[in-house]
Design goal:
Helix 12 links the parallel strand 2 and strand 3. By secondary structure, the protein is mostly helical. The two termini are 42 Å apart. Helices cover 39% and strands 5% of the residues. The protein has a 5-stranded parallel beta sheet, sandwiched between helices. It is built from 15 helices and 5 strands.
Amino acid sequence: MEEAQDLPEQPVKKAKMQESREQSLSHVSNTEVSDQKTESSNLGSNLPMSSETSTTNASPVSTSSTVVNISTSAVASISQEYPTYTILGQSQYQTCYPSSGFGVVPPADSSTESLALATTTYPEEKPNALVPARAVQRPSSGDASTSPLLPRATASKELDEQARKNIPGKNRGKRKADTSSSQDSELERVFLWDLDETIIIFHSLLTGSYAQKYGKDPTLVIGSGLSMEEMIFEVADTHLFFNDLEECDQVHIEDVASDDNGQDLSNYNFSTDGFSGSGSNANHGSSVGVQGVDWMRKLAFRYRRVREIYNKYKTNVGGLLSPQKREALQRLRTDIEVLTDSWLETALKSLLLIQSRKNCENILITTTQLMPALAKVLLYGLGEVFPIENIYSATKIGKESCFERIVSRFGKKVTYVVIGDGRDEEIAAKQHNMPFWRITNHADLVSLHQALELDFL
């Protein structure tokens, strides 16, 4: 790539950068979660739930009219091994275990029952796959002491134990180290982040609302916002083809990858390939001619190059800028941090804590168009936290549809937590029964980090 040079200032494009704002900055009313379980109070009043979470105690399943009386000590032992789980999202899991793993045991005297419980063994390691339970034949009537029921009862309990241990998502909060378990490498929790006014302060800098709310100098605040906006569009136009891609914006970097034929782009000249991203090609998707295919291939080439640039400079955005611009960016980021009382630094603590967990993922959903959003992430130093595959633009389809795509990508067994300040992400979270953590001030960011440190989230 050619070394970046100073470019003339780009016109300010505020209209494309402004995200939809919420009219009210107040927390979700506590009355919306008044019937939430008492245990969830550990999350603090700062975590209003977009949907109520309830737990149904599984009733024992009886396969015959005969009931086996289990001693109180045995029940207490089982309860200690499988404590009731009270963290968020448990309503999406099974409320009872499959009855196929239970054997049918006829009445037995207390000595036989005690022997069966005493000899029951449990596997020390989680099995890789759930072993299907074999059908247990009902014993013929007769003396229980002469029937071969003890081995069957033991085998049934082992299968039941395997069924319990193989139900996905049972472990929440702190996980015990278990190197032998293949489930340790599976994703358990996905955090869906808004960008503006949640991770960074940007839109409210431009409008002056942040200065008004926190008593800052409006001239300094608005000036810093305008300078950062200008730099964002300069990077997007110069390095991320925003002039070409503005009218054919995509939700995700992979959306046109299927049209890429894998051609070597090392000597490809993007400025002379004749590509035009104007609205005249808006209906290119329905074209079956050579021109339509050629246009889509050139579009895919640009998105591939954007991915390469992002991955190359995600930890060193200064490499895209001239020495003067690098110094200007450093000063600007420092000034914004001072004006916003280290807002970004506070948010980064939570982001990095989530990133350090092997079974958690940070996802970014923003109403900014994709190319300016990528430039914004790079310039604010968030490239290492958000891989380009984890960035979605909701400009065209809205956040609710973005959430649907993300759920389709990671599956419904994963626990999702939405973090944002706006009404749109709150409504989207409610539609998908996801917990919503509202960010309106510094205290909300601090409380979020504390909840993560305590493994409440």
